[in-house]
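Fig. S4 source data, part A: sequence.
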Amino acid sequence: MYIREAKFVCLDTETTGLSFDKGGRVCEIALLTSKEGKRVNSYTTLINPEMYISPEVTAIHGITNEMVALAPHFKDIALTLADYLESSVLICHNVAFDVPFLEQEFANAGLKMPQIITLDTLKFARTHGCFSRNRLGIIAEELGFSAQGWHRAMADTVMAEKIFYHFLKYFIKAGAQTVEDLVELQTKKIGLKITGER
């Protein structure tokens, strides 16, 4: 698939813990859909995780039990999310964190998450970046983007989208034409040294 034809969905989740294997659940989700660099639509919601959010976790993302008490359950929004994800290229900062949570939440809702191509801005940063650290907010700040609201789903999604398109400009100049090229560039070094320096 050519890059110009792809529907990119940048996505971030906030959760009740660091691992779904240990019972963690999604308590907020946000996504931004774009094509040819232009925003198509957006979606964000708090999610009732059906479990207690500890003060330690709330201290990270600011989401309290009171905030999610009347929020929809994941099963209530699963089909909406599936529509956004269908036939898209999913972009996250640390796919290995977000996607397993999503797969488990879809499974809990009696559904399968759409099978889609994933791209990871964290992998791009590790392979082609020269940042002081590869954490989302730090990369954003070093590229001159705002990190305000870091650790809330929509703020993180906006940062991931900006970082992705920043990298994409370099990749296209280096000859990338297809989504398959981008998948390969997650781990293939081609001599790029992308920094926040102007």
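Fig. S4 source data, part B ends here. Residues 3-185 form a domain with the Nucleotidyltransferase; domain 5 fold (CATH 3.30.420.10).
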